[in-house]
Amino acid sequence: MVKTVTAPTESARSLLARNLRRLRAEKGWSQEDLALEANLHRTFVAHVERGARNVSLDNIEKLAMAFDTPVHCLLLPEDHDRLW
């Protein structure tokens, strides 16, 4: 039996941006706070949250570690059953 996989309706870049904004708001963090936690520059975080930067896996990992969440969870759609 072949499993059918449907294409995502939202790009990985926009999923990441939306999830970062949501998680940051849940923590009550500013972009500066997130940048400090992830050891990144605030303007870089702002660009990622706007979907204006093609972020590397290394930096996605830093952002996930700042939120203490698995990397793949930053790319899940909002309606997905969360694993975290």
Strands, helices and their partners?
Elements: H1 12-27, H2 31-38, H3 42-49, H4 57-67
Helix pairs in contact: 2-3, 2-4
What does this protein structure show overall?
There is one protein chain. The protein has 84 residues and is mostly helical. The chain has one domain (12-74): 434 Repressor (Amino-terminal Domain) (Orthogonal Bundle), CATH 1.10.260. The chain is 51% helix and 0% strand. It has four helices and no strands. The chain has helices spanning 12-27, 31-38, 42-49, 57-67. Helix 2 packs across helix 3 (42-49) and helix 2 (31-38) crosses helix 4 (57-67). The chain starts with 11 loop residues before the first helix and ends in a 17-residue tail after the last helix. The model has no long low-confidence stretch (mean pLDDT 90).
Task: Describe the structure concisely.
The chain has 84 residues and is an all-alpha fold. The chain has four helices and no strands. It has one domain: 434 Repressor (Amino-terminal Domain) (Orthogonal Bundle), CATH 1.10.260.
